[in-house]
Amino acid sequence: MATKQRTVRLYERVxxxxxxLDSQTTKLKAAYPDxxxxxxxxxxSSRVKPExxxxxxxxxxxxxxxxxxxxxxSRSMDDMLKFFADVEAKGxxxxxxxxxxxxxxxxxxxxxxxxxxxxxxxxxxxxxxTSSGRKIAIAKGVKFGRKPTIKTATRKLIVxxxxxxxxxxxxxxxxxLGGSTVHRILNPGKQKKYNEDNKLRLQxxxxxxxKT
Length: 212
Description:
By secondary structure, this protein is α/β, with parallel strands linked by helices. Helix content is 58%, strand content 11%.
């Protein structure tokens, strides 16, 4: 009975559409020229990875999954270990080039689990450090977001003109600001909410950058 030839399945991922996969492709193809390539551009923390799922669906007993780095497989320890368990369940193994991991060995399986835990720890450490640094900066009076560009004198003039009966359109034309800006200045409560919403948007972008 002929032995089934092992199929090598190469997985590569970058976090955003604007990033380039060329470096990973070159390394993977240099190691396994005949390997089947599965590529995608999305965050490592994303729960749904269509190409990785397709790879897993195609996987057969004895196949090998290869990635350049552990972080390319996933940024979440739980997700990474689940993927590892799914690959094992189908009779496959994982090789990670940079970390020199090969799960076909007992030592390789142990290192895989340890490295997955370390990667998760590093990610959480970065998030915690970023959050702590932000809190300390705010306590010291550091302002985040764009600095206000409207002078105090202009704000006072807007209030004065409104008190004299000018419409928002008239005030806007006189001071050279948009109607929505004039409206926010005349309604400080809404200005505060706008600033808070803007801070939340900036923090969300920072958190997203840390995750990728």
